[in-house]
Design brief:
- This protein is α/β, with parallel strands linked by helices.
- 51% of the residues lie in helices and 19% in strands.
- It is built from five helices and seven strands, in the order βββββααββααα.
- The strands form two sheets. Strands 1-7-6-5-4 form a five-stranded mixed beta sheet, with helices on one face. Strands 2-3 form a two-stranded antiparallel ribbon.
- A hairpin with a 5-residue loop joins strand 6 and strand 7.
- It is elongated.
């Protein structure tokens, strides 16, 4: 998900069905990294309680069908996989934004939803569509890698826990693609629909 013109005093956190303004002092700086273009990118994690609850929820769920001693480790691994999926989704927006001449210096990263803070709006509806769809497109890359892997490994390792986790990660990409492409604002599908309408009518009416 993307937002334009994040200010210095607050960052706009958007979940699947909306967003809230969270003061910057309530965010934890997660580090500084470099993207493929060699530019730096500030990444932030929120202090929201869900960040700690997610691995516990996974562990509690896994403990119903696996040895309880293994559940915490798999819960932590699943949380990391969820964060990695969210990170690549937002990097898709950021990379396409830079191809379209829109810079991004800040990303809000949470397991249940991220936000790329683009510094300016896209110059054309076509660019806005490209930027919006670049996030969901990253899930297609995940699927192109994970599903063939599960097909190859199923016969030999289909009974092992790590295989079911891998299979679950592959299926997660489907659900995240479908969810993000729903034609509902502010999801990527909603932004795409609005920009597509702006190709025919005035952007304010779209």
């Amino acid at each position: 998900m993307v937002v334009f013109g994040a200010g210095e005093e607050s960052l706009h956190l958007a979940a699947g069905d909306g967003g809230v303004d969270v003061p910057e002092q309530h965010l934890e700086r997660a580090g500084r990294t470099s993207d493929v273009a060699g530019r730096s990118l500030d990444q932030w994690n929120s202090y929201l309680p869900a960040a700690g609850i997610i691995p516990l929820f996974f562990a509690w769920t896994f403990a119903t069908w696996m040895p309880w001693k293994e559940a915490p480790a798999w819960g932590a691994a699943s949380t990391l996989a969820l964060y990695a999926t969210t990170w690549t989704h937002e990097m898709g927006h950021i990379a396409m934004g830079r191809r379209c001449g829109v810079e991004t210096e800040t990303m809000t990263l949470r397991a249940l939803g991220g936000l790329a803070h683009l510094q300016a709006p896209a110059q054309t509806p076509q660019d806005d569509i490209r930027i919006a769809l670049a996030g969901p497109a990253t899930h297609l890359v995940w699927m192109a890698v994970l599903f063939p892997a599960t097909w190859v490994l199923r016969d030999a390792h289909g009974h092992e826990t790590w295989f079911w986790m891998l299979d679950g990660l592959a299926r997660l990409q489907i659900w995240m693609t479908v969810f993000n492409l729903l034609p509902v604002w502010p999801l990527d599908g909603g932004r795409t629909l609005r920009s597509a309408m702006a190709l025919r009518i005035h952007a304010n009416r779209a």
